[in-house]
Amino acid sequence: xxxxxxxxxASFWGGFATLPQNYAPHxxxxxxxxxTERGEAVMFLDDGSIYLNGKIVFVSLQRFRHKxxxxxxxxxxxxxxxxxxxxxxxxxxxxxxxxxxxQSVTLTNGTRYKYKxxxxxxxxxxxQFLSKNFEKPISEVFEKGFEELKSYLISGEAxxxxxxxxxxxxxxxxxxxxxxxxxxxxxxxxxxxxxLEYDWGEMHHAYCxxxxxxxxxxxxxxxxxxxxxxxxxxxxxxxxxxxVGDITFSNTFGIRIGEVGLIACFGDGGAVLYKLNQLFLQxxxxxxxxxxxxxxxxxxxxxxxxxxxxxxxxxxxxxxxGTVSIVCTKRDPEPIFYEFKPEILGSxxxxxxxxxxxxxxxxxxxxxxxxxxxxSFLFGNDGNFLNNE
Length: 389
Ligand SMILES: [Zn+2]
What we know:
Blueprint: E1 9-12, H1 15-18, E2 29-34, E3 43-44, E4 50-52, E5 55-58, H2 61-68, E6 85-88, H3 92-97, E7 104-106, E8 112-114, E9 119-122, H4 124-143, H5 146-175, H6 192-195, H7 200-211, E10 218-219, E11 225-231, E12 242-247, E13 252-257, E14 260-266, H8 271-279, H9 290-305, E15 312-318, E16 323-329, H10 342-357, H11 366-371
Parallel strand pairs: 2-15, 10-16
Antiparallel strand pairs: 1-11, 3-4, 4-5, 6-9, 7-8, 11-14, 12-13, 13-14, 15-16
Helix pairs in contact: 4-5, 5-7, 8-9, 9-10
């Protein structure tokens, strides 16, 4: 059995447990300009964006919706003068490491798309920036395995990793602006993002996090959200050691790379981790297999959907100092959750697991029971963790 959390799990930003005074109300993106004007490098653009020291440090929701999501500008700098080339949605080092170029990702509409073509518009400078600040340092730590990554997070690099996850999450959804809902060209349809009615207001915070290194923003760690790292069981029979699962409407994202699984909720102020720690995370005392990791993504997403009082998240710009900060403010001392609805978990579990597991399980009425939230790969009927070591 061993220590409950040492072997496979570490948590960050269970903010409510230790810092409830910093918790805050309903999610809304607010921009304020502080200080008196010195005037040299600050410009307020017509769409509410803020230009400071040669770059757009705050991309307003309007600009995000109409300029960035239309693909006319580089998705990172959002500058009209940018000359976008291409940036892989799933980082190039991951595609190389697991020979994924000719494999396919499953899109939100259930269709498949080749990883090698899964790219977004990004200018050369921004591409280099992302490589230097995210892909290079993070890939080097991943190369060294789970323990090294855990130490990396604990040593103060959790913000970098969290913003990197926000970046991939945003790129995946942003790309859906340019992919047809229906592959059959004879069918009249819009983009996946349009037809599934993505809420860009809800995703704007993750976008701001993804850009935070680019605009040198300081981030209140509670403005990040929940992050868990889990050890994944390596299985020689596996087709690939890479997996990605996201739940659009609950701002939840999970990625598995080798023996490391990371799950993030964006903008919940740490509420999800706080709650799941109380419920069961400490019981996970062994490495997770594929369906267990996917179930955990569903649990994070489900918990976020049940959160009644998410925090208020703001981007503040100080014109004098030329700084940007992303902060989280308080409404209630404790997170409050709606009464648990098992069918919500069931619906998320079905999305993440049904088609991949239907031929691999021996569970009567699997589809129906999965939908009703009655199937668990993590815990047995006695509530104990199903250790697969
Ligand atoms: Zn750019």
